[in-house]
Amino acid sequence: MGYSIAIELTLKEMKTLRTLRNLALAGGCVILFMPATAQDNPKLSDEEVASVAVTANQIDINQARLAKERSKNTQVLQFAETMANDHKAVIGQASALVKKLGVTPKDNAVSRQLLADAAKTEKVLKTKKGKEFDKAYIDNEVAYHKAVISAVKGLLIPETENQELKDLLQNILPALDAHLQHAQMLQKQYAAK
Amino acid sequence: MLNVWVWGLFLPLIFRGYNPGTESKAPKIYTVEIREMKFVPAEIRVNKGDTIVWVNRDMVAHNVTEEKSKAWASPLLPVGKSWKMVASKNSAYFCSLHPVMKGRIAVQ
Ligand SMILES: [Cu+2]
């Protein structure tokens, strides 16, 4: 039973990763190998880019909240705290900017897909506790940050018209990268045990 | 006559250069910026007694914490805030919130 859950999560992570990567890479040769939903390079307005950015950050905050409920590991709890605080800070700055620009975030196929994938991941995470939860959560954070980094670089930045919004997205990348490395560091510690 | 003039002007300058006592005693202030999830510069060389100021110019909050035994640490540094410390010995430090952010102080 433990195995089937673990496999299920892995498949879902892969699916999230694949969805985001498809979105990011659509337009290139990968299209040939992709299911119907990902075939078109999504054309996003700045309103839609803003919605995707806020949604992607909110998902990580929600999962950090889950970690705070279910983990007892100090390092995992501290990581989750950092995720919650940093992604809140990013949302705060994104919200301030879109308000200034008069852009109203508009939900769209990409943000809806992110939410649907996150709901599945959260469902699986909720079946786990203790060390099993920690591993699944950290594995998912590694996969999620990789996926978000490639989506920001390959989809959101190229789709953005407004220079200030583009710069904001560009400025988020170092934090995402540090989060990814932090998650990978914790992942390696599990592998060593 | 001209010689005396020239020496009179230059000798003090030359000797000042050779005299480490007077100039290096005054403690200096160095700034380390925190931006794009990095300490810039990551390694700083100072004299004992110099002050180092860390300024958070990033998008998220950070801290500055001695790495080996947490011998010293700043409070949480929200965006725009700074914290200073008088350098006393060589230290490796990091941000405990983002442990991949590392820095080093070399005290001469
Ligand atoms: Cu930090």
From TrEMBL, chain A:
Q: Which Gene3D superfamilies match?
A: 1.20.1260.10
User: Which residues does the UniProt record annotate as the domain DUF4142?
Assistant: 45-186
Entries under InterPro entries matching the protein = DUF4142, Ferritin-like
Q: Domain of life of the organism in this record?
A: Bacteria
Question: PANTHER family attached here?
Answer: BLR2558 PROTEIN
Name the record gives this protein = Membrane protein
| Organism (species) | Adhaeribacter aerolatus
From TrEMBL, chain B:
* Keywords assigned: Copper, Metal-binding
Q: Which residues form the Blue (type 1) copper domain?
A: 31-107
Q: Which domain of life is it from?
A: Bacteria
Name the chain's protein. Answer: Blue (type 1) copper domain-containing protein
Listed GO molecular functions?
copper ion binding; electron transfer activity
- The keyword S-adenosyl-L-methionine is annotated on this UniProt entry: no
Return the SUPFAM superfamilies for the record: Cupredoxins
